[in-house]
Amino acid sequence: MTADLRAARRQLVLDSLGIAVSAIGFALVFGLSARNAGYSLVETSAMSVFAFAGAAQFAAVGYVAQGLPWLPIVVLTFFLNARHLLYSASLAPRLRHVPWYHRAAMAHVLTDEAFALAATHFHRLGRVDVPGYWIGAVLGVFIPWNVATIAGYLLGSAIPDPAVLGLDIVFPAAMAGLAVGLMTGRREVAAACAGAAIGVGASLVVGLSVGIVLGGLVGPLVGMAVPAKAASGPIAAESSLPLRPSHMAEAVAELDDAEHVHPLPPIPFGTYDIDEALDESEADAALDVDADAPEPPR
Questions:
Q1: What is the spatial distance between Cα 191 and Cα 218, in angstroms, rounded to a whole number?
Q2: Which of the 8 DSSP states describes residue 238?
Q3: Do residues 61 and 32 touch, judged by C-beta distance below 8 A?
Q4: Confidence class of residue 32 from pLDDT cuts 50, 70 and 90?
Q5: What is the pTM of this model?
Q6: 34 vs 152: CA distance, rounded Å
Q7: What tens digit of pLDDT does each residue of 91-127 get?
Q8: 51-55, 135-139, 174-178: least confident range
Q9: Cα separation of 45 and 27, whole Å?
Q10: From the CB of residue 210, how many other CB atoms can be counted at a distance below 10 Å?
Q11: Do the Cβ atoms of 229 and 186 come closer than 8 Å?
Q12: In 3-state terms, what secondary structure has residue 245?
């Protein structure tokens, strides 16, 4: 393991700590909510292990408590988690070399927090790090969420509201901090600002799930419309001559001035006789033959 990879993974673990604190707080409340809705401990834990959907788990528990049929529950939770399509579409091109069954397992633990941690880690490292993805997704989210789900179910009413402890602000603050690290140019800043504005506005007007998806779709399009910043560094020329903007009229004028300062000698032109030129060529050839002939012995 190289020093850069070791440092990047160390930072990844530190980033995961803030995410884990938020996941623990909300998983405690989920365990309590599932217990109040009539779920058993096994059912509650199984939902956190196999569904592992965060907000969709809260929604599903509420729908089941209200007696909704399973089909509306599936449709509603699907739209609630539609943002995961954007996450997977962003990661898929980078993970083409990973076997499909491995990618399927990675998709199961893909959450808002796991995507933010992975995207930041890959950007910081400059390449894909599959073990790093598992560090963020499993150690930072999956294990804390499932352990806290069981604890919340067992502790019951002793679990305080995360908002009372200020844990409700930990998750958005951590996600915002990770997002800032990905803004390396004006295109990224424009995409983030546009996505946030559109997402918040659409969430207030239409709904949270629609706002998140709409902001995630339109924000990158706005960023792509922003012109890329021109390279500010010097251009490496193949020669040592300085590069500068050139104009044809100025170049011709400079050439005329140079000819006046250092005029070229005139090229003589005359009339040549073909027969005379042939005779001279034959004479030169005869001289060459005489020069190459060996000297007679003395």
A1: 8
A2: S
A3: no
A4: confident
A5: 0.60
A6: 9
A7: 999 999 999 999 999 999 999 889 989 988 998 888 9
A8: 174-178
A9: 11
A10: 16
A11: yes
A12: coil
CB within 8 Å of 63: residues ≥ 6 apart: 72, 73, 76
Neighbours of 224 (CB within 10 A): 11
| Lookup: tokens for 161 | 């509201």
**pLDDT given for residue 238 in this prediction:** 42
CB 116 within 8 A of CB 137: no
Please enumerate in sequence order all residues whose Cβ is within 8 A of that of 119, keeping only pairs 6 or more positions apart, or say none: 90, 91, 178, 182
Q: For residue 94, what are its two tokens?
A: 């980078």
Residues whose CB is less than 8 angstroms from the CB of residue 259 and which lie 6 or more positions away in sequence, other chains included: none
Distance CA 162, CA 148 (A): 13
Taking residues 5-9, what's their average pLDDT? 91
Q: Are the C-beta atoms of 24 and 136 separated by less than 8 Å?
A: no
Q: b/e map of 128-146 (b: 16 or more CB within 10 Å)?
A: bbeebbbbbbebbbbebbb
Domain boundaries in the chain? 3-182, 185-227
Which residues, other chains included, contact 79 with Cβ-Cβ below 8 Å and sequence gap of 6+? 209, 210
DSSP secondary structure code for residue 23 in this structure: H
Residues 6+ apart with CB under 8 A from 57: 30, 47, 48, 51
End-to-end distance of the chain based on CA atoms, in angstroms?
Answer: 88
Sign of CA dihedral 50, 51, 57, 63: negative
For residues 194 and 223, the answer to whether their CB atoms sit within 8 Å is: yes
**Token pair listed for 279:** 């005779």
Return the beta strands (E) in 46-112 as ranges: none
Which amino acid would we find at residue 40?
S
Q: Beta strands of the chain (E only): which ranges?
A: none
The secondary structure of residue 234, as a DSSP letter, is P
Q: Residue 25 and residue 164: Cα distance in Å, rounded?
A: 11
